[in-house]
Write a structure and sequence with these properties.
Oligomer: single chain
Shape: elongated
Helix content: 25-40%
Order of helices and strands: EEHEHEEEHEHEHEHHEHEHEEHHE
Radius of gyration: 20 Å
Largest sheet: 7 strands, mixed
CATH architecture of the largest domain: 3-Layer(aba) Sandwich
Distance between the termini: 33 Å
Strand order of the largest sheet: 8-7-9-10-11-13-14
Number of domains: 2
Structural class: alpha/beta
CATH topology of the largest domain: Rossmann fold
Length: 330
């Protein structure tokens, strides 16, 4: 549109880890040879339904490519629950299994320059030091990136559609993180177009999250946007509970939040992205090098709404949002 604003569509806009678990076996067709191949998968907590769904998405993608559970291919599962030291420990445990390829903890790329790594939830892999460039990754790392920073403006647009009275909106995250700075630039620019006051809400720990969310809610007509980062998963129950208690409309980056009681989300289909990662696992197991596989960006985005939460916040969900939503939770 000529004024720089546009509505959120389903396909607008070009996703460390408590505990250790070793997997049940998985596999490959006989023509690949008799040596057992090992794929290491590192995710969140062992009881995290989101992690379980994404593990199954990877396995489903592999099955679609002809890999069958059995003696020729094995999955090993590792979990580190958002604790940085635990992530480093898990990385060492993971490497000890001598995997042929891995979907990693974020700490793993610092621990090995030889084991092939396929990431699935790194927002800015160049700034994060994972790859040299998206088209030419170099080294042993490649993968799939879920976001471009412009999505922060679309989170704000969705929030304003649902709660047009909001006058100040805070971006919750870690201001020292390069991803937060990228989201902030797009968010601040969109806030100027939308005519709302943009604010930062640091989220270093649970106490800081609670203090800053309460500060946003202390002034009438506040809103909240939760950036895509590990803190949001670690503190998701706290954030969702505070937003409901304080009657604060909030937009999240993954469907897992409205499915857990949050108001709404707009972001990539995380399960589909993990399913697509199997294409790179397959190619690497068949002999291709990560350095020759360009980083791919998510192409499918979805809007998920929780009407029960909207009712608790006294928000009347506009018909146009309901019509284009990919999922409406009653």
């Amino acid at each position: 549109m000529s004024d720089g604003r546009h509505k959120i569509g389903r396909r607008d806009v070009p996703k460390a880890f408590t505990g250790l678990a070793v997997a049940a076996p998985t596999v490959l067709s006989a023509q690949q040879g008799s040596r057992q191949r090992r794929v290491a998968l590192a995710f969140g907590g062992t009881n995290d339904p989101d992690a379980k769904a994404r593990i199954e998405a990877v396995r489903d993608g592999m099955r679609r490519l002809g890999w069958v559970e059995g003696p020729d291919l094995r999955y090993d599962y590792f979990f580190a629950g958002g604790n940085a030291q635990r992530a480093r420990d898990v990385s060492q445990q993971l490497l000890a299994t001598s995997p042929d390829v891995t979907v990693p903890t974020t700490a793993l790329h610092e621990a090995t320059a030889s084991v092939p790594i396929v990431f699935v939830n790194v927002t800015d892999p160049v700034a994060g030091g994972f790859v040299a460039s998206l088209s030419r990754p170099e080294g042993n790392v490649t993968g799939f990136t879920p976001f471009q920073y412009l999505i922060a403006g679309k989170w704000l647009e969705l929030l304003r559609e649902m709660a047009p009275a909001v006058s100040h909106v805070a971006l919750l995250g870690d201001p020292m993180n390069h991803n937060f700075r990228g989201f902030w630039a797009a968010f601040e620019a969109s806030a100027g177009v939308e005519g709302v006051r943009a604010m930062q809400a640091p989220a270093g720990d649970a106490g800081e999250v609670e203090r800053n969310v309460r500060a946003i809610a202390a002034e009438p007509n506040g809103g909240l946007i939760i950036t895509a980062a590990q803190f949001s998963l670690i503190h998701r129950e706290l954030i969702i509970g505070l937003a409901e208690q304080l009657k604060l409309p909030a937009v999240y980056w993954s469907r897992f939040f409205p499915q857990s009681g949050g108001l709404a989300s707009y972001g990539p289909d995380g399960n589909e992205l993990h399913r697509q990662s199997a294409t790179y696992l397959d190619r690497i197991l068949r002999g291709e090098k990560p350095e020759n596989l360009p980083v791919q960006q998510a192409t499918k985005f979805e809007t998920v709404l929780n009407l029960k939460t909207a009712n608790l916040l006294n928000l009347a969900m506009p018909a146009q949002i309901l019509a284009r939503a990919d999922e409406v939770i009653e």
